[in-house]
Amino acid sequence: MRLENLLREKGYSVVSSESGEYSFDLLAGRRDSVIAIKFVENPRRDKAEKYADDLRRLALSLDVTPLIACEEGVPEDSLATFRGVPSLSLETLERIIEGEGGPFLYFSKGGVYVKIRGEKIRRMRRSMGMSLGDLSYRLGVTRRMVYEYETGRADATLEVAYKLVQLFGEDVVERMDIDSVARHFAEQVAAHSRDTQASRVVKDPLLRRLLSRLEEMGFLSRAMERAPFNAVAKGDIGVKCRVLIKRNGSDEEERFTMEVARLCGSYALFVNGEWLRVVGEKEVKAPSQPESVDLREMFQRAGLQ
């Protein structure tokens, strides 16, 4: 696949799946940045709701940036948000990976907006001796709106963004890249309701007991419906701890789960009727009795690379 090859050329480590049924088709990591990508023909079709919900839960628990790459349904060089997940055309995503992303245009309920650099606008305004009132008059907006722009609390409409560029130059407009998309996701997802803890969703008794134990330790867990693992969780054991949880499964599913965990700097936790296994830098085993096992100690003994 062209995108996968491009990511590798740009220095990303890539883990990919040929299943097509998972909520992500590949994960790519470079330095401290990991992106999870799902390819769909159109985000309004292809069971995209379940893919998007699962992808959002994965991203929040593993601290990755989720992306839906579409063959159609999202205009070029712009970004839409589908159930909290950034969605863009495959061609636009390729340009972003190449480092050739254009101005950050995105669709919202109120129309099309452009992300702007508020601090840059404030510096340019002051350097030109303009007051808030002067700039509000030039832009055709209120002084309050200018204040919102400069403090990063509001983005600009296409018309206002054009006027800002005419006044101050293109540097006042944010460019679309992986980091800016990640920030946009964080802003958008804050508006979504909190996910239900996984122990209230899963039906398997042993898995539910294990998840309840993690939640008692302060972990926030989320059930996964379309992934090679059953749940993901994030908590604190003195350091941030992210976990992929798998209840029984094929050797291929376990291998893929471990690859995802390794790429995301997370633990893989496998459970069956006999053993609990935590896989990090090392593998640590204990009897499959979640209530009596010291999971914190298991994580610490397993370590992470």
Low confidence ranges: none
Total domains, how many? 3
| CATH classification class of the largest domain | Alpha Beta
User: Could you name the CATH topology of the largest domain?
Assistant: Trna Endonuclease, Chain: A, domain 1
> How big is the Rg?
22 Å
Helix content: 25-40%
Q: Element order, helices and strands? A: HEEEHEEEHEEHHHEHHHEEEHEEEH
Instruction: Summarize model confidence as the mean pLDDT.
Output: 94
Given helix and strand content, the structural type is alpha+beta
Strand order of the largest sheet: 1-2-3-4-6-5
| Count of DSSP-assigned helices | 11
Strand content: 15-25%
List the SSEs and their pairings.
Layout: H1 2-9, E1 13-16, E2 26-30, E3 33-40, H2 48-62, E4 65-70, E5 80-82, E6 85-89, H3 90-97, E7 105-108, E8 111-114, H4 118-127, H5 132-139, H6 143-150, E9 156-157, H7 158-168, H8 178-189, H9 205-216, E10 220-223, E11 231-236, E12 240-247, H10 251-263, E13 267-271, E14 275-279, E15 283-287, H11 295-302
Parallel strand pairs: 3-4, 4-6, 12-13
Antiparallel strand pairs: 1-2, 2-3, 5-6, 7-8, 8-9, 10-11, 11-12, 13-14, 14-15
Helix pairs in contact: 5-6
